[in-house]
Every structure is written in C-alpha cells, then in structure tokens.
C-alpha cells in the first residue's frame, strides 16, 4: 500500500524558489535544533533568541515540544517509536518552513542521536544547526519547572528522559552551550554563530 501511495504522490516545484524567498526576507532559512534534558533551558533560550531575532527584523518561527503535542502530534505517546515519529513530523514541518525562508527554532529533548541525525539529513548540512544545551541532571531536576522529575522519581511518570530513559548527548553539535550560564550570555553565542555562518547579517 505504501509503495502505491509513493508512486502517486508527486512533489510539485513552485514558481517562487527558496532562494527568492530568502532574498525577500533578507536572510537565509535554517533550523536551529535545541536539544537537552527537560529543564535544561531549551525553550527559555529558544524563546529569548526568537525575540532577539524578531527585533532584528528576522522572520522566525519557534516549534516547541509541548505546543506540537497539542495538535500535530497529539496522537502520539512517549514510547521510543512515538518519540521518533514525533521528531520526524517536526522535522518535516521545519523543512517546509526553511523552504519558506524562515529561521526555525526547534526546542525538543530529542534524546536519541539517530532521530537528530534524521532531521539533519532532511535539512542538509547547510540547513541544520544542532545546539546542545548541556545542563547537569541535578540542575535540571532542581529546576523541575513542570514537576515532571518529581513525578518520575515517584514512579508516576514512565520513560522519562534522564531518569528511566536514556539521553544521548550530541557528539558533533555545531554549538555546545553551558546551560548553567545566564541566558543573555548564551544568546550572544548563538547570534555570533548565525553571523559567522552568514545566516543573518553581521
């Protein structure tokens, strides 16, 4: 059935190209993929970056793990297969947004290297920047902004990354951030990288 479906679904190229959209925006399209443990600061940093980029006139969109699970991925649980499908769907959405010329900020635990590599392969090397928010488990657990670590320790929440589910830290992230630093300092590092890579203007 899948093969028949594949044969009859054809990708249509549009009259307006990605390069033309990027030219209109005045910057390149790219995915910044923020990964790290729950409570590491992914969403906080991504949100601060979105505001900073918006203030610079950059066209952005922030894809947040919880928000996506309210709609696009509301039918998925937290098994390994469902987590993989969650990331695949987000990667496909991000790919469309990059084609639209946007700077896409994606904040997802995405605990497995294979899943993150899958999204990297979708985007191509020049369209994907992996940002590892490296925050010790003890710090994340002390923050516990959603009370999830407390539930996991009490056995009320299964397959929770860092407690009874594995997190595979990136081996070659484009940017490795210390999650214990001030957000303002981390923001400067991300903006510097975007300028160095000529994604936004210096």
Task: Describe what this molecule looks like in 3D.
With 202 residues, the chain is an alpha/beta fold. The chain has a single domain (28-196), classed as P-loop containing nucleotide triphosphate hydrolases (Rossmann fold), CATH 3.40.50. Helices cover 45% and strands 13% of the residues. The chain contains 9 helices and 5 strands, in the order ααβαβααβαβααβα. The longest helix is centred in the middle third of the chain and has 20 residues, at 80-99.
Order of helices and strands: HHEHEHHEHEHHEH
Note the beta-strand portion.
5-15%
Which whole number gives the mean pLDDT?
A: 90
Based on helices, strands and strand pairing, what is the structural class? alpha/beta
Q: What's the name of the CATH homologous superfamily?
A: P-loop containing nucleotide triphosphate hydrolases
Biggest sheet overview: 5 strands, parallel
Distance between the termini: 50 Å
